[in-house]
Design a protein that fits this description.
The chain is mostly helical. The protein folds into 2 domains: about 60 residues, no CATH class; about 120 residues, Single alpha-helices involved in coiled-coils or other helix-helix interfaces. About 70% of the residues lie in helices and about 5% in strands. The chain has 7 helices and 2 strands. It has a two-stranded antiparallel sheet with strand order 1-2. Helix 5 packs antiparallel against helix 6. The longest helix is centred in the last third of the chain and has 27 residues. The protein is elongated, with a radius of gyration of 33 Å. The two termini are about 60 Å apart.
């Protein structure tokens, strides 16, 4: 994140120092009113020079504030969420580093899906075992392949390098599809509950004569 700040000029301070130096050389400073007058002249000189030399506005890079960690009250879920946050940061870094547009687009989708998969356990702790399996194999392997791709992209082109890069690119489409299925699978419990609620509601409406033509 970038921010515009104003860097103050050093000229007003040098001006005040010059006022003191000249005054002490040419005028008396042994009485209290001498010092008071010198202070008043110094303040006036400082404000005048501040107006004449206001400094310059510069753009600086300000680090993004760290988001507040999400806590669920479940130590296992919280540890898994921290692991997910670390993985998402690394995926984000890789997405910004990889230059190939098509690969970058797939990395960004993988990053989005990974974030959603880990966030799911906040709403549904029953999915912790599924997310742990995902975090234990699929995610580390994906990170390993993407780090290799990022590293080898900067190497001199050769048969081994180009062949490896091509194989990683080919597997990314399958990886994205697998991540989508993994995310969709996390809603199996919720879908079952909704189906049950719909069945119960339909039965109640039929029993009360409020379904179909009876309604």
């Amino acid at each position: 994140m970038k921010k515009i700040i104003t860097k103050r000029s050093a000229v007003p301070l040098y001006g005040v120092a010059a006022v003191w130096a000249v005054w002490c050389l040419l005028l008396p400073v042994y009485k209290l009113w001498h010092l008071a007058l010198l202070a008043a002249v110094s303040v006036g000189a400082y404000f005048l020079l501040s107006k004449l030399f206001p400094g310059k506005r510069v753009e600086v890079e300000v680090p993004e504030p760290e988001p507040e960690p999400v806590t669920t009250g479940n130590p296992e879920a919280d540890a898994l969420l921290r692991e997910g946050e670390t993985a998402v940061r690394e995926l984000t870094r890789l997405g910004a580093s990889i230059r190939e547009p098509s690969v970058r687009a797939r990395v960004e989708e993988i990053t989005t899906l990974t974030k959603k998969i880990f966030e799911d356990i906040v709403d549904d702790p029953q999915d912790i075992p599924q997310v742990k399996r995902f975090a234990g194999y699929y995610l580390p392997t994906t990170l390993k392949l993407l780090n290799a791709y990022d590293r080898m992209s900067g190497e001199a082109s050769g048969e081994n390098v180009s062949g490896t890069l091509r194989r990683i690119e080919d597997i990314l489409d399958t990886t994205v599809a697998a991540y989508r299925r993994q995310y969709d699978a996390l809603f199996a419990n919720e879908a079952l509950d909704i189906d049950t609620d719909i069945t119960v509601l339909e039965s109640m409406l039929k029993r009360e004569g409020l379904a179909g033509k009876d309604f």
